[in-house]
Amino acid sequence: MTQTTQHAFQAEVQEVLNLMIHSLYSNKEIFLRELVSNASDACDKLRFLSLQDDALLEGDAELHIDIAVDKEKRLLTIRDNGIGMSRDEVMENIGTIARSGTKRFLEQVKQGKDDGNQLIGQFGVGFYSAFIVADHVTVLTRRADAEPGEGVHWSSDGSGEYSIGQIDRPHHGTEVILHLKEDEDEFLQDWTLRSLVNRYSDHIGFPIRMLETPPAADDDGEDAETPAPEWKKVNQASALWTLPKGEISDDDYRSFYKHVSHDFEDPRCWAHNQVEGSQNYTSLLYLPSHAPMDFMMQRDEPRGLKLYVKRVFIMDAAEHLLPNYLRFMRGVVDSDDLPLNVSRELLQDNPTVRKIHAAVVRRSLDLLGKLANDDAEGYQAFWGDFGTVLKEGIVEDNGNRERIAGLLRFTSTQDPEAGDVVSLADYIGRAGDDQDTIWYITAESLAAAKHSPHLEIFRKKGIEVLLMHDRIDEWMMGYFHEFEGKKLRSVAKGDVNLANDTESAEGDDKPEVSEADSALLERMKAALGESVQDVRASQRLTDSAACLVLGEHDMAPHLRRMLEQAGQALPDSKPVLEVNTGHPLVRRLADAGDSDFEDWTHLVHEQAVLAEGGQLDDPASFVARLNRLILATSEAA
Ligand SMILES: Nc1ncnc2c1ncn2[C@@H]1O[C@H](COP(=O)(O)OP(=O)(O)OP(=O)(O)O)[C@@H](O)[C@H]1O
């Protein structure tokens, strides 16, 4: 070996290592899955590159992963003949540079009560899990396109530093040698290792081999030789998705999911489809049980499915196979129709990919629909984790809007405490045939939605209203106007005519406005000037004095505020002030003298702004006005 150099681990890497070394993991054995998974990825990469240049295989086309044990020295070795790493790659991948995942992993562990156990692997810290069971780790590796003299030796005990040097390494690929801690003897046992491979890595696409001593041919001869151990395959080594469905057990599906997704938990459900005909492809789609801790941050991060072509791994996170709003799905697509040299650019505009994409969407929505039907509790859990993401589909996927809409769940006035449990089908079922509108309100919070004055008439008439309080809802509803022939309308926008929505035909519900009230409304409008578009008598209010109503296509105030805060310039739009002419405050206003009239009118308007969660343009004037009126009222009393 040429001279080795010492390097300090990057601080965050060291923190991860400390966690591995000092925390008590209930599931130590996952280190083997992580290392075998890395080895399998390395074999995948080499197989892919060798399609262009088979010299990279250096005459060794049988890609495989070996697990070897040296009981005396307490060594466990995981060796692959995959792509290998250069010195720079070793430093980058397992040493100096903290990858974004490492940082986030730590943040999540620090924030949560989780000891990190569930998180390993989700954040690209898989390799470091070796230090859960090892007090010293050595990596010997050489890239398949490097000279034999350019091998790399890396070693560390996980505390502060690692050493790196150059070695001769006749064969490409990587060898990870774990020196096991004193109390980790079980991982030196042949049967433990076999059963772990069996459990976690049975269906990765490459043979995992262990040494096996064949039985002696004949043991009665004195000098019968003990046969030499031979490398024997200990896993199925058949890509799971290629097997007939009848031959795959649920446990097989679950363990393969863990390999594909690096998730520690079982998947919630899956769909496996083998399509033959004008198109030939297989998809194996999984719905995770829970969102990864940092899931919502991942909108711009790699997403998608693993793409294989004719059983050859082509790429991770093939985003063209999966729309953004299904980015929580995991899995594999294997196509017989794509060329092996397909690139990301080629995928972008490829008719075969478009068809697979459409089918993946269909299958994913089917899977969710089935979950909703068969397992209400499971579906609620899914909705809690990924519902907001699925809603993006209403905007992004016109063609599947109705299907996605069927999967949405809302809170409603029926039982606001029950949470998001109401489907549109539930709503329609309860509403009855007479009601031709699905009513909803969007607001900044559930409390704001629940207490909105806009709901008053709906409460009085017993009409259910969906209470939408997710940030995305107002944006979503801008694209979503009809479901199964029923209109979707906001209770806070446009005219409300409930004549068609109640069994008791009450005419067109237009309030009788006396001449005196008309004059009052005109006066109020004049007093409010530019702040409102109009002042009119309300059909919505039964208890409150006033509320603000938007035009049918106007943006809800909370979304407007959010966008304005983000610096977006929006066209001006003014609300209408609707007034409950029977309300005592309004009656009081009618009796007010000229000097008080303006104050009372502004107060009614300002109340309406506050009631929908808005901010006053001039809070100080509001306070002064309020005080004037309180004092005047108490003096009069
Ligand atoms: N056996 C190996 N052969 C070649 N490269 C490897 C091998 N093991 C690890 N690496 C490299 O080191 C990187 C870091 O590995 P690590 O297991 O920590 O994270 P990861 O596999 O990228 O992420 P995740 O575990 O979330 O999939 C890998 O991405 C790969 O580039």
UniProtKB/TrEMBL annotation:
Histidine kinase/HSP90-like ATPase domain boundaries: 27-184
Gene3D superfamilies from the UniProt entry: 3.30.230.80, 3.40.50.11260, Heat shock protein 90, C-terminal domain, Histidine kinase-like ATPase, C-terminal domain
Region (C): 562-637
Principal cellular location given in the protein's record: cytoplasm
Keyword check for Transcription regulation: no
Residues binding ATP: 34, 38, 80, 85, 93, 100-101, 122-127, 174, 344
Keyword ATP-binding: yes
Domain of life: Bacteria
Coiled-coil spans in chain: none
Signal sequence residues: none
Keywords in alphabetical order: ATP-binding, Chaperone, Cytoplasm, Nucleotide-binding, Stress response
Gene Ontology terms: cellular component: cytoplasm
Localization of this protein: Cytoplasm
CDD domains registered for this protein in UniProt: HATPase_Hsp90-like
Region of interest (A), residue spans: 1-344
Pfam families per UniProt: HATPase_c_3 (PF13589), HSP90 (PF00183)
One GO molecular-function entry: unfolded protein binding
HAMAP family per UniProt: HSP90
Function: Molecular chaperone. Has ATPase activity.
Family: Belongs to the heat shock protein 90 family.
Oligomeric form and interacting partners: Homodimer.
Protein name according to UniProt: Chaperone protein HtpG
Organism lineage: Bacteria, Pseudomonadati, Pseudomonadota, Gammaproteobacteria, Chromatiales
Gene that this sequence comes from: htpG
